[in-house]
Structure formats: C-alpha cells, structure tokens
Amino acid sequence: MSRYSNMENNDINASLSTQNLTFITGGSPASFDVIVNNDSDIFADFQIDIKAAGGNRNKWEKWYRLEPEVSSAKPPGSSTNFQVIIFDTPIIGFVGTANLTIRIFSLQLRQERRLQLRLNIESDNKPNSLGLQLPVKQFHVDASNPIDIPVRVSNNGQQSTEVTLSFVVDERWLIRNSQQRFSLSGGSQKEAIFHCQAPSANKAPSKNYPFKVEAVGSNSYSNSVEGNIEISPFGFVEFYIPNPQQIIPAQRQFLPNWKSDTASFVLHFKNISNLIQQINIQLQGKDASKCSFQQIPENANLDVGKTNQITLDIKTKRHWVGIRKKLQLEATAELSEQRLGSTTEPATKNLELKVLPVIPMWLQLTVLAFILGILSLPKPDPVMHTQSVNSVDLSGVGNIAISGSNDCTLRRWEVRDRKLKPEILTIETNNKACGNSHDKKVC
Questions:
Q1: Are 148 and 118 members of one domain?
Q2: Which residues contact 160 (CB under 8 A, 6 or more apart)?
Q3: How many domains are contained in the chain?
Q4: I want to staple 202 with a disulfide (CB 3.0 to 4.6 A). Which of 64, 134, 263, 305 is the partner?
C-alpha cells in the first residue's frame, strides 16, 4: 500500500494533456504533459512515477524520461508542468494497448494522485527487431588485467530468432571466442558476457580503446552498440645524468681559447610508464641567471618503455683572467602527460659547471712571474750626475775629464771612438767629493 493519501479531496490536483497516446516501436519518441496544481496552503514539490500494466522491464531499464525530473518547491495555488517522453516500449515484444498509471506525489504533503493513460503500442512493420544494450559503456582496467563486457540482447518482435552476437575489438584483447550464438524467443531478452584481457603496458599505452558489439538475427535484422575500454595510467619516467659535471672549455684547457663558451650535458630519460610523453627542460638554480640554455631536440618524444636522450647546451660568459668559477644549476624535466604527475623521478637533477678564464692559469702565473722578475732586477747606476756639477778638470791631452757634483760623486769621462764614455770613480768618504775641489791625482 502507498504511504500517501489518495483521497479525492487531497491537495494535489493533476490533469493530462491527452488520454490516448500512440508509440511506434523503433520510431520517434512520443510525449504528453502532466499539469500538477498545488491546492495546499504550504510550499511543496512534486514527483512522478509511471508504470505500465503487464510491463516486463527491469527497474534499471528506463523506457521514459521526465522534464523536469523533480519540480522545485511551489507556493500555494501554483502549478507545475511535467513533460513525459516515451522513447522505448514498456512491454518488450508487445503490440496493442497498454494502460499506464501516472502517480503524482509530494513528500511535503504526504499525498498522491493517480491518473490513467492508454498507450497504443504499434509495430514498426519490421519482420524482427533486435534490441542491443551495454549496461556499462565505459570500462576502466589496469594493464594485463582481464575484464568482462556484459551485453543485453532483446527480441522486440513476436517471432523467435537465431542471434549471432559478435565482439569486435583489437585481437590482442581476445582470450576467448569473439562470437556467441543462441535462440531468442519473441518478447524475451538474454544477457551475454564477452571476456577479454588488456595487453601488457609496453604494448598498450594508457588511452581509450573502442569496441563494438554486433547482433544479427536469422531474418537478417541487425543492431550494434559501441563502448570504450580505458587502460588506467601507471608508472613513472626515470631521469638521470651520467656526467653532471662539465667544464668550459671542454678541450684545449691549457691554451687560450676565447671562442669556447658552451658546455653540453646529456640527459637520459627512461619511460617506465604506459603514457606517451613529451619532455620539456627548465634550467633553475642559484646561478641560472648567469646562463642561457638550449634543449636539443626541442620536442623530445618518449614512447612507452623507451629510452631517449636530450642534450642541454648551457652558455655563459667567460672572464679573461682570474681563477676558475663554479656555477651551481638545476635541470627540471616537465612532462606533457600529467595524469601521473607533472615531473619525472627524480624531479630535479643538480648540475655543476666549471668555467675557466680565457687566459689559462699557468700563462697568468708565467706573465706575473716575468713581471716580478723584471721588477726585482738591481737598478744600474746612473750614467750622469743627479745634482749640480761643481767642478770639472781636464787631462793634459784633453781626452780625460773629471767632474764633481753636489750628489757626492766624481765621474771620469773618457773620449773613445769619438764618444764620451762615463765611468764612476770610487771615492773614499774622507775625500772632498762633496766639496768644491778634489785631488787632481785621480786623473
């Protein structure tokens, strides 16, 4: 019994747009309206349920739909218009008149009203009609796991038919027969199951794989439905660098080489997942602003189960002199397919770039030692007086001269090869080298 009151004087007043409706099996949908009035003194919403006398559909098999499915709360005195759209027969294999009971009820009013409608079900004049349905159209499965595909077949005609049911899918998925044959009497239905298995991860990337189920009757009437099987993603992309330390210049480090300003790091990636990836490299780290970089190739594809390499060229400005500089960098790999995460494992690898000066250290030290050696050489005595000359004496023949100066030095001058050659005389401190006269015997 219903939990709701169905008295004639209840607060739910309803009517139908028609008392008779025709529906052609396999044809266009048929529809009618249900007008519901709220005759109560409170806000209330309304719902509708429809049943067919002699109906043989399961509860989960919908043969009609409502627009709207549930009305919003309506104030007293207002009305709600429901549209009922019938898109399938409520009685499989039946042709004739079926009585429909339209039940209108409200949770707030705890009342209901029932109305009757005559539905004329007509045949589409086809010799036989096979109905085909997938209870589930989208499946999810892990790689290498088995999966069952249920299919419902119904004979909407009056006569029995021999049905050939075929499962059309990539042959790698099949583990049993892809066809089933059985007899289906008029107005009956049968559920069949096809068994398949997802390929291993390296043979089937994670994506949707379509399949089709085809039904062919003995009278050549056919039907088909389609669905999808999605292989779930799993795994990761391994990231490693065999040589994370590089030096500029890579060659001829003991010779000046001002043209070399780039180092190449080889990055290795191994796809241990079932997702096809594309890799993009970003350069980070505390010294990243001192560098520019280029990824080769620019678009690096990584297929399932494969290994690929990316060359990362890092360019920086070199100083001419000084000591070696060490740049600390980080290479981060970003993945195009991010269902398993946006980065690799590990996400970041450290890079160390040693930058040598243009002029090698040994050459810098050699030049420095040469300069220091020159500076350390003893200074030669000057070839002239550093202060004023206070006296000059000449020899008898005029080829030798002695000069005295306020710098306390005596210089001997001799004419040789028509040139005046200076010579420094060693004078004892008690001599009058710093005075106004000197001993003439020095000549």
A1: no
A2: 183, 184, 185, 186
A3: 4
A4: 305
Q: Rounded CA gap, 319 and 367, in Å? A: 17
For residue 159, the enclosing domain spans 130-231
| Average pLDDT per block of 10 residues along the chain, 443 residues long | 56 91 86 92 89 80 86 86 90 83 89 92 69 90 90 83 89 86 86 90 86 83 88 89 85 68 89 88 87 86 88 85 83 86 84 83 78 78 72 76 78 77 56 50 44
Q: Assess whether 254 and 350 both reside in one domain.
A: yes
Q: Verify that 95 and 134 share a domain, yes or no.
A: no
Residue 220 lies in a domain: yes
Please calculate the CA angle 199-204-205 and round it to the nearest 5 degrees.
145
430: burial class by Cβ within 10 Å (0-12, 13-18, 19+)? exposed
Is residue 324 domain-shared with residue 417, that is, in the same domain?
no
C-alpha distances out from residue 371 to 254, 358, 365, 374, Å:
21, 20, 10, 5
Tokens coding 11: 């607060």
End-of-domain residue from the set 57, 89, 122: 122
